[in-house]
Amino acid sequence: MREATTGEHLMTYPLEAGGIDDYPVKVGSMLLTMVDPNKGFESAYNRWYERDHYYAGCMVGPWQMSGSRWVAPRSLKDLRWPEGDTAVANPTDSGSYVAIYWVQEGHHEEWTKWGEDTVTWLYSNGRGFPERKHTHTNLFDRIGAANRDADGVPVDVALDSAYDGIFAVWFDARDGHSAKSVHAELLKGAYSELMTGSNIEIVSSWQPVANPAADQPMDLGTPAGGPERLVQLIFVRGDVTDELDRMKAYTDGVAAAGLADVHLVAPFFRTVVGTDTYVNELW
Fold first, then answer.
1. CA–CA gap between residue 281 and residue 283 (Å, rounded)
2. What is the maximum span of the chain, computed from C-alpha positions, in angstroms?
3. Which tops the pLDDT comparison, 213 or 264?
4. Residue 216 sits in which domain range?
5. CATH number of the domain that 236 lies in?
6. Is 9 contained in some domain?
7. Which pLDDT tens digit goes with each residue over 237-274?
8. In sequence order, what are the beta bridge partners of 71?
9. For 201-212, what is the mean pLDDT?
10. How many C-beta neighbours within 10 Å does residue 249 have?
11. Intra-chain end-to-end CA distance of the chain, in Å
């Protein structure tokens, strides 16, 4: 790093390539919104969301780092487990689309205030979409992340890195544990075992924000959970279904170790932005 000299702009020049944790822009929290369009409105919903609401309701806002959309056609919904658990998705196969947004660390409250005001304005001005149902829409704080590769993709830029698929996973820590303590235990070896030799590159861990808004503009589905709730987004290159056996072994191992119980493991494909790909395959 070289400091600016007299006559140069007052800034520091990063002349050497940094590693995963060496840059100052960090994700601190996320919005995760899992939704179903009502039957018969699949294409209209998809286009409204990606061409209007995705931007007007989130991406143009202050401190919004990035966003992405993911889809679970029927073929992926049928792979979810544990079967019949309704703590997150009720029923288990609800939630065809999930949109995920990163918020810059240290600015969650400012971002939330902008979002609440903006969404209220949009709905009041005919920019909502009534033919949809929220499965699970909540805010989460980052706990940490693990990478397969020592010089891999930082979680801070993961939504922009064109991953082909994700697993979204919800655990509840058992008595004597919290979301943070479970993540700390899994860092000791379980994450490495999951990712080594696979197409899984990042495991990111999250917990519900401590003080969610009391008033919501609509029914947002199942609640976020408490400090025991550990949410993980697991980023995959290639076909997400190729990693099902690894993921099942991973979640079984977490339970067998007495750390946490899994409520939902849901694979998703990345949406093909600008197209109606998958809209006829949801049910």
1. 6
2. 67
3. 264
4. 27-281
5. 3.30.70.100
6. no
7. 999 999 999 999 999 999 999 999 999 999 999 999 99
8. 97, 269
9. 92
10. 13
11. 54
Q: What's the rounded Cα separation, in Å, for the pair 85 and 88?
A: 8
Look at residue 270 and tell me if it is in a domain: yes
Are 236 and 261 contacting, i.e. CB atoms less than 8 angstroms apart? no
Structure tokens that stand for 191 in this block: 């994450």
Structural domain contains residue 5? no
Nearest to 130 by CA among 56, 45, 33, 34: 45
Instruction: Note whether residue 180 is domain-resident.
Output: yes
pLDDT average, residue stretch 84-95: 98
Domain count, the chain: 1
3-state SS string for the chain: CEECCCCCCCCEECCCCCCCCCCCCCEEEEEEEEEEECCCCHHHHHHHHHHHHHHHHHHCCCCEEEEEEEECCHHHHCCCECCCCCCCCCCCCCCCEEEEEEEECCCHHHHHHHHHHHHHHHHHCCCCCCCEEEEEEEEEEEEEEEECCCCCCCHHHHHHCCCCEEEEEEEEECCCCCHHHHHHHHCCCHHHHHHCCCCEEEEEEEEECCCCCCCCCCCCECCCCCCCEEEEEEEECCCHHHHHHHHHHHHHHHHHCCCEEEEEEEEEEECCCCCCCCHHHCC
Calpha distance 123→117 (Å, rounded):
10
Residue with tokens 């140069």: 8
Please count the residues of the chain: 283
pTM: 0.94
Tell me how far CA of residue 176 lies from CA of 207, 229, 263, in angstroms: 16, 13, 18
Distances 90 to 22, 85, 134 between C-alpha atoms, Å: 41, 8, 10
Distance, in Å, from the CA atom of 231 to the CA atom of 224, rounded to the nearest integer, reads 9
